[in-house]
Amino acid sequence: MFEDFHLASILVATIRNAPVLMFAALAGLFAERSGIVDLALEGKMLAAAFVSAAVAYATQNPWLGVLAGVGISVAVAMLQGFVSITQKGNQLVAGIALNIAISGLTFVLAQFFFAQGGRTPDLGQARLFDIVLPGSALVADIPFLGWFYTQFLGGHSALVYLAFALIPVVHWIIYHSSFGLRLRAVGENPHAADAAGVSVEATRFMAMLCAGVLCSFSGAYLSLVQSGFFLRDMSAGNGYLALTALVFGNWRPLHTALGCLMFGFFAALQVQIEGVTFPGVGKIPGSLIQMIPYVITVIVLAGLMAKSVAPKAIGLPFVKSR
């Protein structure tokens, strides 16, 4: 009955699922800590996924694809910053508009360049492949240790290790650096920060730059690691799940990462229970199984939204006092 239900496989899949959300959530952390509502995580992720896949396919070099993804994601972030910071535009509308525009634009460009129904060709050798840790062959047959070292700790792409390495780095930046102090001050009380000599606009643009760089890794991971090609709307709501993880983590890096791992776990669980026969129930329809991460999202938001404390100036355009 449960012969295909393996905890070890779920844990490994959790590690592989989490980076998509981690990069995007940490990107949103910088933006929202500065006072900018970042609904455009989905759009930046999708733009980076397309450009990374297209450049990697054209050059047969995945790292050039990653760099190109960084460039386009930063460009989108700067456009978002121009609308939200310089022009004092509505941040929610700007984010949603970018998501819609990029969703259509990436499909049109993919169809124009590759003529494969809005997707890129399979990347083949241009993908980012898994890293085999030293000594894996020696311990592969040892019970538990072999699995733990070769599959749980090892056997992942470089972006997986980067995602987990960034957690303490972002924590240090937010709470122990002068930039982090300015960032939090601008997000909580921009007028007080301005009176203290902090440039609110410059700090917010720097936060958006960080958000653009981090979110690009999420898009690159989707196309260069998980799928091996770009497909229309392949971000599939992960940008919004990342925002949910941010609320779950109360805008704190370590807790946000735990929220990403939680969503990664339920995404892995969804795959494992598909096709499993449950006593008295039978097989659960695939469409219901695919709802699991989103149902968890609603539950998390309903249970934690009232308890989470967002930066006080989030969503509010800054108008310099005369």
Rg, rounded, reads 20 Å
CATH topology: the name is ABC transporter involved in vitamin B12 uptake, BtuC
CATH superfamily descriptor:
ABC transporter involved in vitamin B12 uptake, BtuC
Instruction: Write down the overall geometry.
Output: globular
Uncertain stretches of 5 or more adjacent residues: none
Largest sheet, spatial ordering of strands: 1-2
Give the total of beta strands: 2
* Domain tally: 1
Q: Percent of residues in beta strands?
A: under 5%
Find the structural class using helix and strand composition: mainly alpha
Q: What characteristics describe this protein?
A:
322 residues, mainly alpha, ABC transporter involved in vitamin B12 uptake, BtuC, two-stranded antiparallel ribbon
Polypeptide structure, described:
The protein is an all-alpha fold and 322 residues long. It has one domain: Orthogonal Bundle (ABC transporter involved in vitamin B12 uptake, BtuC), CATH 1.10.3470.10. The protein is 69% helix and 1% strand. The longest helix has 28 residues. InterPro entries: ABC_transp_permease. It is a multi-pass membrane protein. It comes from Undibacterium parvum.
Question: What is the secondary structure topology, with strand pairs?
Answer:
Elements (H helix, E strand, L loop, with lengths): L6 H27 L7 H19 L2 H25 L4 H24 L21 H4 L5 H9 L4 H19 L1 H11 L1 H6 L4 H28 L10 H11 L4 H21 L3 E2 L3 E2 L2 H4 L2 H13 L18
Antiparallel strand pairs: 1-2
Helix pairs in contact: 1-7, 1-10, 1-11, 1-12, 2-3, 2-4, 2-10, 2-11, 3-4, 3-10, 7-8, 8-10, 11-12, 11-14, 12-14
